[in-house]
Amino acid sequence: MAGVKPDGAVPPLRTAEVIAVGSELLGTSRLDTNSLFIAQKLGELGIELRAKAVVGDERRRLHEIFVHALGRADLVLLTGGLGPTDDDLTREVVAAALSLELIEDETITARIRARFERRGMRMPDLNRRQAMVPRGAVALPNANGTAPGLLILAGDRVVVLLPGPPRELQPILSALCEETGALGRRAGRERIHTVSLFTTGRSESHVEEATQPLYSQWREASPPIETTILATPGQVEIHLSLRSDDGPSARRILEDARAQLADALGDSVFTTSGRTLPQVVGERLLERKLTLAAAESCTGGLLLQRLTDVAGSSAYVRGGIVAYDNRVKETLLDVPPDLIARHGAVSEPVAAAMVEGLRARTGADVCVAITGIAGPGGGTEAKPVGTVVIAVEVPGRALEVRTHLFPGGREMVRLQATQSALDRVRRLLD
Amino acid sequence: MAGVKPDGAVPPLRTAEVIAVGSELLGTSRLDTNSLFIAQKLGELGIELRAKAVVGDERRRLHEIFVHALGRADLVLLTGGLGPTDDDLTREVVAAALSLELIEDETITARIRARFERRGMRMPDLNRRQAMVPRGAVALPNANGTAPGLLILAGDRVVVLLPGPPRELQPILSALCEETGALGRRAGRERIHTVSLFTTGRSESHVEEATQPLYSQWREASPPIETTILATPGQVEIHLSLRSDDGPSARRILEDARAQLADALGDSVFTTSGRTLPQVVGERLLERKLTLAAAESCTGGLLLQRLTDVAGSSAYVRGGIVAYDNRVKETLLDVPPDLIARHGAVSEPVAAAMVEGLRARTGADVCVAITGIAGPGGGTEAKPVGTVVIAVEVPGRALEVRTHLFPGGREMVRLQATQSALDRVRRLLD
Asked: What number is the ipTM of this complex?
């Protein structure tokens, strides 16, 4: 790795392009997701991903796209196409484009052979192809597969070949991006620092409105803070990033910015550490040693499923009742039939009765009930699709019942209903 | 649209490349998903997607990548970058690369202005940019946004510019790809025909083993049938496709192939029409006029959530009990405490008792119980993480109780447990 040692004469890597190789990535069902991880790791080193490409197992196109990328970017990463079959062209195409001879690296052959032998198998002759490397390339050990990664210096530029499966690619790239790794040592002194802040209970435009004056101010600051807003049903995420060669100062600036944002957005902010709303609610319940139960009608189990997705949730989730059918509301939640007849199943009195029945049946401290019309059928003029009633009771507080009207289709209504219920619990436990 | 009429002298479009424009697609959280839809629509016309690129709002890179793509492919589609701001470069870069002047199309301006006026707003001057089109381009009306798509003929080649938001892009592209649309009329006589077949209860390698002889035979046939296998937790999908200019014959060949596959795979095939397992189970319940209830421990509501994701599921899902805590198993499902003490909560006797209690409480025809260890904690040597007991009872059949050991982490174990439970219901209702 002598060639990649820090050296005053070698300019730092600033820009990168990624090329994902594999015909399966051009079809109707699979996307190249490795590029998200790559953007993250390179970003931490201050190396900006400027373009991505996906190309099939096709020699001429791969050659052209690689040569053009290398003409534009300091670093080109290729993922996939390192398998043992004739279809796997990445090694050959890169070697040819850089006019490097392909030679067998006996160390790699031995490593692949040992890998097969550990499983009591002989190495198929085919796998020798995976030990062919462009002369001068550095092999990057792959703990989770047979194909090693490869690092090649092309003048001031760097080319990295990585296997396609994420569990093979990620550890190899992480090692390269450590401060002492081949890419870490070639990065400039600038890093991209980031913080984030997630809100719920406000629309994207409300969040924009509340924060616009801050953004304008930050864009003009030196160094400027970049903001990205991502909206998903029931959640708006704000990501701030800053390019700087002074870590402590960058972190201070970003913490200040985050505090200003948090002030502007108030208690709609539920996390500044990237946690999900079910995680945040779980932590509050744990802190306060409370248990939770839910009675779900239109969400059909989604709320409990999201809560129990969190590892360790058995410490605070007691369970609940999915009362999709009105008979279940009556027999398992003791909702009086005449209450349903009088007000309808989607009504505040019924939601309140669901909480009451749930508490009596489960003895949980925090009880949540959701009843609504997720659609596409079932809406009326008075109660259109998207109407959802949520009742929440936490110890020491009066029962809270609210009627919402959520936009969107069935999936969005269900998701927003659970998000809103979780947010009520979070606020009531504040 | 005179220029795109069928014409003996114009060769059909065979290959395409896609370029997605927008810096937000180069970060750590968003992927270009439009290309999946594009691959699908073009595939139906026999036009093969050969490469994709993503590039930021950066003039030089976009210019280069566009020019190179146009040098290789018959059709280049660009998505995004058609907004009204300075960042939106697609129109300008394409016009410059093709040496076409940008002129304002008054019809488009009028349409955008009318769109604003319908909402009681004045059109901001900025939006005039969206009416600028390369001379000779055909505007493609956008029912869901301000920016029209554009179609440009560049010699024998075709360039299409589409807005980035899927709900704007999809209708425009669909119209272009109709037999009478500008792309439909330029497609060759060959189409790509497809069928699919989804299985559950068999691993990917078992499916491969059972079907390998068929694949080899089909690969050598004329025209060859291409097969793609996609494995997700608890499900293996087989997609067959065939390129042919004779529709009826292609469909016959594919139907034959699908029948052979179905024979080889037996009752692990749950759909040949792309439906999900919860949909298939729902249809069987509806046909037989049966209701279903579930008692879930480790899956925490996921089974009921997946069943009720299906619109119209209220016709057969009665509801159920999420008995995450053992007390809930005792109080709401009447599982005898000493049964849990003797055998443990994850045991066949407890799963059987959960079904019994569930039936008594809900009166549902089909009752399903799931109890297991999803991890990461809670495993023992005798019952490691991934141990899941599933009990199913359907009318006229004896109660069926089975113990499984599912691989993978918490999420995979939970997903496979629900998939397996749904599959048991499907088979017992056969």
From this structure: 0.83
